[in-house]
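#structure-requests
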Amino acid sequence: MKMMSTQEYKRWILGTITIVSSFQFVFSTTDSAQQMFLREPEDKTVILGEDVLLPCRVKNKVGMLQWTREGFGLGSDRELIGFSRYTMVGNDEEGDFSLQIVNVQLDDDAEFQCQVGAAEGVKGIRSKTAMITVTVPPEPPQIVQGTSLLTTAGTSVQLICEAQAGKPPAELSWLDGEGDVVTSGTEYQTQELSDGKRVNAILKWDFKPTRKHHMKNFTCRSENSALKQPALATIRIEVKYAPKVKLTVFNERIVENDDVQLACEVEANPADVIYKWDGVIIVGDHTNHLLLSRVGREYNKNNITCQVSNSVGSSKSTKILKILYGPKFKTTMENVAADIGEKVCLRCDADGNPKPEIAWMYEKSSSIIVLGPELVIPNTTPEKAGKYICRATVPGFPEISTHVMVYIKGPPTIKAKNVQYGELGKKVEVECSIYSVPSPAKITWTKNTQVVEVDNTHGYEIVTQPLTDGVRNLLIIHNAEKGDFGMYNCTVWNDFGHDSMLILLKRKEHIPTLIVIAGVIGGVFLVVSVTIVVILCLRKKSLSKGKEFGSEKQGKPSDTVSSRESDIEIRTNSPLPNDNDQSWDDTSDKTHKEIHGYYNYTKDYSESSLPSSVKSQSSNGYGPYIDYRREFSERNPGISSQPFYYLGDTSFHGNRHQVDYSNSYIGNSHPDLLLPQRTHLSSRDRMYNPIFSPKHYITAHSITDSVATNV
């Protein structure tokens, strides 16, 4: 069997349908059955390029069925020849003639209707109109300014976003740098294309960028029912802006005299900035820091400003310094003079940070009488007069206080020395201290009932010096003469009475005269003291000589003084060597032992054996002291040194005993002035008198009651 072509097949199908329809029409006429829709098409919305199905089911179909688009028939053939994307699907037995459209295009955006033609005895029917709405996604959004924009803060900027050829037109919105939708400053526009179906969408945004917009991404979002998700376009904004300044004080707590450091933190574009602190340009490194050394209380509540500028502009930040400092009184309180019964108001103001606490106290009480800067005494009495103390306290600082005197008005009182002194030919001041509340109205000086007036010729001058509760009045006499000395009267008056006082001005001896007198007295005393020492030494020497030698070794009358029990011989014809003389042996002094009696020349010792310093001296029958300790020790092995003594100006001292000679006749040959018996002296003891160069050496021992003294 020969295969039919497609065209032939379509004709065959169409003929078959016609025959069936005629057959149905015959039978329907016979049965009088009406054709009707079991299912009608409905409106559809479809995205461009998708497929769509419009349902249409007919019962008792007799007439010819076709679909119309915008009122034009598409044909009754299920293949809908000429419309390649259109097909009537279903089967005749079920009466299903649904229209299927594949790859929907804008042309398909129209009204469709399913119609069944009339037949003999049967009316034709039409379904309700179904609208196919074809949606077209817009093109990706584009920002007219591009992907980046350089601008300056405060300058108006317009950003434009476009989304073209959308159906319906794209819904556009701007998102700021934080992702939030911009709701102000926008304008939405549309432009319909020539096909009458698609539309271009435009969204404009006018704004003034700020520092917070710098380097932020701004997004244009496009939405459309044909889009499965929004389409986005982004632009980055670079904003040049003036510096943003933040001023920081490093010190959490600033106390007076502390060093304060401040830092100026800056955000700016461009970053090339200039700093100014309180209007002064800072140059060099670390210009964003400021150091205030040892800030005083005058800085408290002061504004410290950091101003920073760049090519865009300038801005500044200010800090108010809070300096903590101790209390200080603002003013000095003046003493108050009040009448009895008068109301007195005292005020004490102090500065400090924190604000000082003010307390008032009375000198006769240790308790606080009132808190606050003001103290009111409603009824002043003598019992309430006196010193009132104001105390100011700031936590963490030393307390300070001051006082004010409240006086009761009354007559004046003079307090001064009754006798005062001055020097002849010098400036003399006569003082009269006056205690007077109120202040004195008049002060006069009189001498011999004559008022003393200020007279430059005679050299009189009156000077008044204020006191807390009166005055100090001075009568000054320049180049005082003899007649200026005598009795003066100081008299004072005030509104309540008067007082007076006699003051005797005496002449004071000149100080150099007293010095001379004192010097003379001192010199006399010194001479007497030296004389007593010399006489005492002569007496002791004579006693020693008398004991040892008797009549065999008599000295000259002028050299010897005798007593009842002892003699002292004084040799003054041979000066003693000084401490630097080699004839004195310090070592021998330390080991010296006393020799019995007075040491003189004997047959065992020739003159040739004497030191040269001794040979040249006149001996007058006796020689100076020579150290014969070794021989004496050999001849007198039983004799040892005794405790030492020294001879003072008027007394005889030892390390174990002390004998004072207080008799005014000491040094004379007085029978009652005897040296102590059995006195032990050592030549190791030396006494040095700074007035005379000779030294005194005293030697004593326990065998005899004599004393030998070398001078």
